[in-house]
Amino acid sequence: MQIVFLNTFEKTTASDGIVSAQLSICERQGEWVVMWMEGVEGQQEIWFEGISWEVMIAAFRHGIAIKMGNGYVPIIDGMLDDRLASGGSGASMLQCYGELYANEPLFQSLREWRRGKASGEKKAAYLVVTNRILWMISAFVPQTEDELRQIPGWGTAKQSAYGKEILELTAQAERATSFPLDWVAAQLDPDVFTEWLYKQKEQKFKNQMNRQHAKGKILAVMKEGGTIEQLQSMLELSRRDIMERIEGLEQEGYNMDPLISIELADMPEEEQRLIWDALQSVGDRYLKPVLQHVYGTSEAAALSMPIELLYERLRLIRLRYRRQLTDKAV
Q1: Which of 13, 106, 240, 316 makes the best surface tag, with the fewest CB within 10 Å?
Q2: How many angstroms separate the CA atoms of 71 and 258, rounded?
Q3: 67 and 138: one domain?
């Protein structure tokens, strides 16, 4: 086994002692191994074994974020791709405070409001407002438009679309803090904030690792002639989420046509041609005009099959359409 990277970490114990650990990336006959050795007795943890460089890097960073969040400091710094800035940013401090001191009843009311909005607008809840923004709103309880605009991530578009409704909810809650929010930095315990920052990194790299695992499974299922339904069962994701992964892989340069062909096998060629022509006529950025162009309506009750399935098919045909445009450009 060949060591291609090695770093030492140290952690100060409650009794002012030092615990050392070593982190290494090794290569063994084309297989990567990420290994953590802790303490004098060499307690070993294997974070990753496999051939995928991308998954290995994600597992490496995820593990580092956990260990550094637990107090280990690397001898050679710069272990994470975007190291913690000294003191953290103001927005990060507000986000941390929001999660730590959220008003739970108000947060639940905001979530319920968001659920209704997402359903009515037929979009994912996080596209309406993220949990992080809702946590901050519930913790700081803004009462005016100016105060609401001080919440990181709450921009002009959200203010125009949802500001009045949010303020109607916050008006019913009491608050113990004030605006502007320049007091937050002094209020947060530095150690608690640092731990929170590393938790964010831990979650970030865990998500990257999970996405890489899902990517491998999608490509394997496609190679074996599988379907979106099989992927849905295997990955425990919605069909919408799987479609987003498929579109992402296509953008990375993977040809997803074997999977597309299977999913469109029972769709009449004439119907596919009409969709293709509509993409050329009205453009491929938005699918609602394409749906209306082909079927004469976008109302679910007037369509011949569930609108979600129709949009899925439009997205699959759009992948082929965009690939052809890219091939022509090259």
Answers
A1: 13
A2: 48
A3: no
In a domain, 7, yes or no: yes
What is the DSSP pairing of strand 31-38 with strand 2-12? unpaired
Strand ranges (DSSP E) for the chain? 2-12, 18-28, 31-38, 43-50, 73-74
Helix (H, G, I), strand (E, B) or coil at 260: helix
Domain of 321, in residue numbers: 264-329
pLDDT in tens, 120-136: 887 889 889 999 999 99
Distances in Å between the Cα of 280 and the Cα atoms of 51, 138, 322 are 41, 46, 10
What SS3 class is residue 232? helix
CA distance 42 to 45: 9
pLDDT at 179: 95
For 175, phi and psi rounded to 5 degrees?
-135, 150
Final residue before a domain boundary, out of 74, 109, 128: 74
Task: Give SS3 for 198.
Answer: helix
Query: Does 204 fall in a domain?
Result: no
